[in-house]
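Thread amino acids onto this structure.
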């Protein structure tokens, strides 16, 4: 089974049966430790299985690899909330907000570029 197939299967299990997802997530981390997605899936599996401390450790690994993904920061916020670490949680929520605003701005700019490109492609009457 290739990376995408295993990761997809694990992602589906995370929400419906996180304890079943754990072995697959651990396997993904073992096979592809340099990628952020396996660590993210492991963090999700651990979090939904009631292990916020281990989830936090895994999501921190994912964030070392890709700190620009707001979803990973949201998972960190969930773990911190479950651990009652309010000060850190506020900082992470601020980071999520910043990254989401940056995403929205980039998306709006991209749509503006697409629209203006479309105008130039119209035939003159």
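Threaded sequence (125 positions):
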């Amino acid at each position: 089974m290739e990376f995408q197939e295993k990761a997809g299967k694990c992602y589906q299990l995370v929400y419906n049966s996180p304890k079943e997802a754990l072995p697959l997530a651990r396997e993904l981390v073992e096979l592809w430790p340099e990628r952020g997605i396996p660590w993210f899936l492991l963090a999700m599996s651990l979090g939904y299985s009631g292990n916020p401390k281990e989830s936090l450790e895994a999501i921190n690994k994912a964030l070392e690899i890709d700190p620009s993904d707001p979803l990973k920061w949201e998972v960190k916020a969930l773990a911190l909330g479950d651990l009652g670490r309010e000060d850190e949680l506020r900082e992470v929520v601020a980071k999520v907000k910043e990254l989401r605003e940056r995403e929205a701005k980039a998306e709006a700019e991209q749509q503006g570029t697409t629209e203006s490109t479309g105008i130039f492609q119209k035939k003159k009457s």
